Amino acid sequence: MKYYNNNFEFDVQLQIAENNFSPFYYDFENKIKLYNLDTFSFLPNIPDNCVDLIFADPPYFLSSGGITCSSGKKVCVDKGEWDKSRDIESIHNFNKKWLSESKRILKANGTIWVCGTFHNIFSVGFALQELGFKILNNIVWEKKDPPPNLTRRYFTHASEHLIWAAKTKQSRHTFNYKTLKTISNGEAIKSVWRDIWKMPSVDHSEKVFGKHPTQKPEGVIKRAILASSNTGDLVFDPFCGSGTTGVVCKKQNRKFVGIDNNIEYLNIAKKRLASTNNRNN
Ligand SMILES: C[S@@+](CC[C@H](N)C(=O)[O-])C[C@H]1O[C@@H](n2cnc3c(N)ncnc32)[C@H](O)[C@@H]1O
Fold first, then answer.
1. Separation of 261 CA from ligand 1 center, angstroms?
2. What is the residue with the minimal CA distance to atom 5 of ligand 1?
3. Above 90 in pLDDT, residue 83?
């Protein structure tokens, strides 16, 4: 079997633990792997300094029985047990635990993206600073089409945040300034370099294999991945859900490892990945 560069070590390590860590899905040609595991049991088995980029969309812990509007109907905001709201300390412990492992596995010049709303993002930002990451940007994703706030007691929630951080203050991080120009999609070019991204929610075409309750639009992840990684880089997603990060990686020729402990979501991811062509096809 042929292995690429320093991912050799990464793959060998996983093979040693084969019984516990056989992949749920493995596309050898494109170097894309999904694991159906708890991220906290998987992360300690990844060697130090081997990942170029982490894209993480962790639980926001916002499911508390509130209501929202979906397709014109009143629906509960709850996403699943994994997203149930918790006390601040428990949320912070959760974030610090996975972020500290993430720092260990990142290469010296590697960076991490973490998504969130006010429910988790302050904890994520604080944990990143406590752990010695260098915060590079706080991106605001302004949703073009947010659902109205039915309670009429708050402003409409029309944004999410993505914090982008480097492993350390010394990291020489990748920022593909010129590449961003190529994805302006009709927007004024200078707006692709701004930290406010005005982009729509998930398109129906991205949900043909099933629906994940907190699926991210490919467009948002594509901008992050193209800006901060290069062809052939290894991208890791510790909470990959329906596999959106993997789909973008396959289209953009990045290697990918994704973890989720929910098999239904991984089944969607598997079908999405199998039906995605890479840029060379
Ligand atoms: C916000 S969603 C990610 C959605 C994904 N970005 C997408 O586009 O489909 C978070 C995911 O984390 C998973 N998750 C939560 N806790 C986990 C854990 N301890 N280990 C592995 N996965 C976990 C959930 O099953 C859920 O799919």
1. 7
2. 241
3. no
